[in-house]
Specification:
- This protein has two helices and 36 strands.
- By secondary structure, it is mainly β.
- The protein folds into two domains: 275 residues, Bulb-type lectin domain (Agglutinin, subunit A, Orthogonal Prism), CATH 2.90.10; 116 residues, no CATH class.
- The longest helix has 10 residues.
- The chain starts with a helix and ends in a 15-residue tail after the last strand.
């Protein structure tokens, strides 16, 4: 990074907002949008749009590129990602309280987007991709840059304690399965969305823990992505290059859990291309296949999610469950069940019992005799009985674990007695 760029960044504090000072109100109080008529407010250069965005499930309130630059109108910010879809008869009104979303034929408020701490005097869709609410003096009182959803654009910070949340799919703008957290300890970490902020649940970390609570993630308009602590560059993630006026960039955590930096030209017929990715392995994200399953991947293919033997897939989010029923009062387990062997597969090693055994056969028998044991992992003479549900399953030839899974044998119909079933 050039000395000039570093000096410029010293004027910014990562723990404060990315405020743009705007003196002219592009959007005045009482202005409104509806999905069917005036559906968006456009930035000065016609680059970004704020307003109603059509999805296969209905309309959502978003900031997106306009189709002048991007035929697909790529979304860079989404309101209310827990439940982003709004009624077709919605109307959005700019008031002193913020953006109030109502139904057209009712005075009932659906939600307030960008609720301001000070009376709002106007708003603007900026050419940076930042939608801002302004007070009567023209100072920013709320902005989308302070509330990122799944991506950041050049000039935007991911501040300490904030995170990006993936979308559920390319067309479903609800929050999905993965998140990128800029932790207050200075570490940038990828997790699945339901996990705790703990090392065992992370599948990527920048290794910068301990660099302080001012460290943030920044993307510049040359594709340079880096961590900055308010004084110096902590870590360069991408190198970037010479700023190009006619090239667009964004950094996004995609629905598949991979964090990528994209670029494209301003030509409408062009498309986004990944210029960097945290991994090209589609099985890299922990939890990509859900519980009681494992992920297999070959270069160029999508992640192949497979259930444990005897388990059935519920969904890619949930994973797999079993209707296997075990009567723990029955001492003759081997007459009803057997252990199926799977090689080169492992999960999070969350065992409740570990035994030293002389062979794979010894591990199979130990699990079969224990009615609480559904799965055991064997390696180097140790048998580790696993707790259910199993998480973070992965198939790879380099994995030395051998798994044994309890299934009903051919003479038994699984689930005859509903006594204790497994996830």
């Amino acid at each position: 990074m050039s000395a000039a760029v570093v000096l410029l960044l010293l004027f910014f504090s990562c723990v404060t907002s990315n405020a743009d000072e705007v003196t002219n109100f592009h959007i005045s109080l009482s202005s409104s949008l509806t999905p069917s008529t005036n559906s968006t407010w456009i930035s000065h250069s016609n680059k970004f749009a704020f307003g109603f965005y059509p999805t296969p499930n209905g309309y959502a309130v978003c900031v997106s590129f306009t189709n002048y630059f991007d035929k697909s109108r790529t979304v860079v910010w989404t309101a209310n990602t827990d439940d982003p879809i709004v009624p077709d008869n919605a109307v959005m009104l700019l008031t002193e309280d913020g953006l109030v979303l109502k139904t057209f034929d009712s005075s009932e408020t659906i939600s307030i987007i960008g609720k301001s701490s000070r009376p709002v005097g106007g708003a603007a869709m900026l050419d940076s991709g930042n939608f801002v609410l302004l007070d009567y003096r023209g100072s920013v009182t709320w902005q989308t840059f302070d509330h990122p959803t799944d991506c950041i654009v050049p000039g935007q910070f991911l501040s300490p304690g904030t995170q990006l949340l993936s979308h559920a799919s390319e067309t479903d703008l609800r929050k999905g399965m993965f998140r990128l957290k800029m932790q207050t300890d200075g570490n940038l970490v990828l997790y699945d969305s339901d996990s705790l902020d703990v090392t065992r649940d992370a599948y990527y970390a920048s290794g910068t823990a301990g660099r302080g609570n001012k460290t943030c993630l920044i993307l510049l308009n040359d594709g340079h992505l880096f961590l900055f602590d308010g004084t110096s560059v902590v870590m360069n993630i991408t190198a970037g290059g010479s700023p190009a006026f006619e090239v667009l960039y964004l950094a996004r955590i995609d629905p598949d859990g991979i964090f990528r930096v994209y670029n494209r030209s301003w030509q409408p017929e062009d498309d986004w291309r990944p210029m960097w990715a945290v991994s090209d392995d589609k099985c890299y994200p922990k939890g990509v296949c859900g519980i009681n399953s494992y992920c297999s991947y070959k270069d160029g293919d999508a992640a192949d999610c497979r259930c444990l033997p005897g388990y059935n897939r519920i969904s890619s989010v949930v994973g797999c469950i079993s209707n296997l029923v075990v009567d723990c009062s029955d001492n003759d387990q081997s007459s009803k069940f057997e252990m199926t062997r799977i090689q080169n597969v492992t999960w999070e090693d969350n065992y409740y019992s570990a035994l030293d055994v002389s062979s794979e056969q010894g591990c199979k028998e130990a699990c079969l005799k224990d009615c609480s044991c559904r799965v055991a992992l064997y390696r180097d003479g140790q048998c580790r009985k696993q707790k259910l549900p199993l998480r973070y399953g992965r198939w790879q030839t380099v994995i030395e674990d051998v798994a044994f899974v309890r299934v009903a044998n051919s003479s038994t119909a699984a689930g005859n007695k509903v006594l204790c079933s497994s996830l």
